[in-house]
Write a structure and sequence with these properties.
The chain is built from ten helices and nine strands. It is α/β, with parallel strands linked by helices and about 280 residues long. Strand 6 and strand 7 form a beta hairpin.
């Protein structure tokens, strides 16, 4: 069963088109009987889109699919941990693309604010189920007016930025972190970052997935540089690493424990939690 009667052809390029790659990997992982991430909605989304996924992005890749599944699960668990303590909190998902986290972690009382560029926002509205606690705001994450859309910050707020910050300029990343620290006391920001060699290849136009050229990346952060994020704002109380959940087989164990092996740590995305006073 698909989400729409007719398949939808996405009109995306640049950074917005990368949302199709992450969706493809989640769906490929979710189709497995031993999937690390249960995401039937991702499978339905792929089936609903008129897009040559395998032709453009390549066939299912065990490493990419499981890594994406575990990364999404890592973010899911961060949200679930926060909303377990503050069940009526607002979750703000920056640059969410076609992520389906809301339907994986919804506790029945949280509010969800998806902040996405206009083309991606239109796809979300068109393809995903409507819910009164799930709102879509069509604007850039760098337009900090999305903070005004949080209806009751006193209930708690967790902001996620999965697969986003690397496409922003360092000053823009710092501005988002500082604004969250200023406006969201008691809140949390979870983000991921790429190693410098990956961002360098992307800036040079040399990073390709199938026939898709990954757009330029501008911000990177080595794992041992996390504590420098404290300097973004005095309201930052804690900065710490989040590690991948247990995976499947030898490859899953490697993904989970990559942070312990320097040679692998420099090849992989790093997930960081920032807690505000």
């Amino acid at each position: 069963m698909t989400l729409t009667e007719e398949r939808v052809r996405p009109q995306l390029d640049g950074v917005p088109e990368t949302l199709l790659w992450t969706l493809w990997n989640r769906a490929c992982e979710a189709r497995r009987p031993d999937a690390v991430l249960r995401d039937p909605l991702a499978v339905q989304l792929v089936d609903s889109l008129d897009y040559p996924f395998e032709e453009k992005l390549g066939p299912p890749h065990p490493l990419f699919a499981q890594t994406q599944g575990l990364r999404s699960l890592c973010f899911d668990r961060s949200v679930a941990n926060y909303t377990a303590r503050r069940p009526e909190a607002t979750v703000v998902a920056l640059g969410e693309g076609l992520e389906t986290s809301f339907w994986r972690v919804d506790n029945g009382t949280l509010d969800w604010l998806s902040v996405e560029l206009p083309d991606g926002a239109e796809l979300r509205r068109r393809l995903l189920p409507a819910d009164p606690r799930h709102r879509v705001v069509a604007r850039s994450a760098t337009d900090l007016s999305w903070l005004d859309e949080i209806e009751d910050p006193s209930r708690g707020t967790i902001v996620t930025a999965q697969g986003l910050m690397m496409y922003l300029k360092p000053a823009e990343v710092r501005e988002i972190i500082a604004a969250c620290a200023e406006r969201l006391p008691g809140g949390v920001l979870v983000l991921d970052s790429m190693p410098r060699w990956v961002t360098s290849l992307a800036r040079e136009g040399k990073l390709r997935i199938g026939s898709l050229t990954i757009p330029p990346m501008h911000w990177s952060m080595a794992p041992d540089e996390r504590q420098k994020l404290h300097s973004a704002h005095p309201g930052i109380a804690e900065v710490r690493a989040l590690h991948m959940p247990p995976g499947r087989g030898t490859l899953g164990r490697l993904i989970q424990h990559q942070h312990r092996v320097p040679v692998y740590r420099s090849f992989s995305p790093a997930v960081t939690l920032i807690r505000f006073r």
